[in-house]
Amino acid sequence: MPRTIELWYEFASTYSYPAAMRAHSSAAARGVHIVWRPFLLGVIFRDMGWTTSPFNEHPAKGAYMWRDMERICAKQGLGFVRPDPFPQNGLNAARVAMALPDDARGAFSRAVYLGQFAQGRDISDQQFLMDTLAQGGHDAPAVWGAAMDDVNKTALRDQTAQAQKLGIFGAPTWRTPDGELFWGNDRLEDALDWIDAAYP
């Protein structure tokens, strides 16, 4: 399917929230299918020598990001609260997303983002993730069991390693079928334009 775009996202990533919330409608309007790729950005940051988000490492950058998120979310009509703590631990959420089929991954991921960034929920909390699964019509205990299986944990580690090999260093990152990378919520339209030109 050439008219696809991969969305590489991290649940603790602030800019991945508005990206995930608008990706489906923006891509669908162009006839492009989204492939959801959760990965662990913290692993990549660690290998860069960072122990926390760069928004925490650099206060001026962090202050700008929080104000920017307020503007972006207001423009998109999204609720926004600052997660506490930040960044949150998105490991289990990523494992659950990884365990879901791709056609269910988007809806679950959007619900987790809304819980975290619009409602102030703790996305590391098992009950929150189980409730989110149940509200999405899933067999929550079965999905949770699959998510915590060693095979699925390895799959998420492998996907994170693949992100590194592809040169992905931040989230959200959009990847086109021919391997072009576009980093940031604001680069979705550029990525879709690229697909339109490459795969008319």
Summarize the topology.
Blueprint: E1 4-9, H1 16-28, E2 33-38, H2 41-47, H3 54-57, H4 59-76, H5 91-99, H6 102-117, H7 126-135, H8 140-147, H9 150-166, E3 173-175, E4 181-183, H10 188-198
Parallel strand pairs: 1-2
Antiparallel strand pairs: 1-3, 3-4
Structural account:
This protein has a four-stranded mixed β-sheet, with helices on both faces. It has a single domain (4-198), classed as Glutaredoxin (3-Layer(aba) Sandwich). With 200 residues, it is an alpha+beta fold. Helix content is 56%, strand content 9%. It has helices at residues 16-28, 41-47, 54-57, 59-76, 91-99, 102-117, 126-135, 140-147, 150-166, 188-198, and strands at 4-9, 33-38, 173-175, 181-183. The mean pLDDT is 95. Strand 1 (4-9), helix 1 and strand 2 (33-38) form a beta-alpha-beta unit.
From the N-terminal CA to the C-terminal CA, the straight-line distance is: 13 Å
Label the structural class: alpha+beta
State the CATH architecture.
3-Layer(aba) Sandwich
Low-confidence stretches: none
Number of strands: 4
As for the CATH topology, it is: Glutaredoxin
What's the average pLDDT? 95
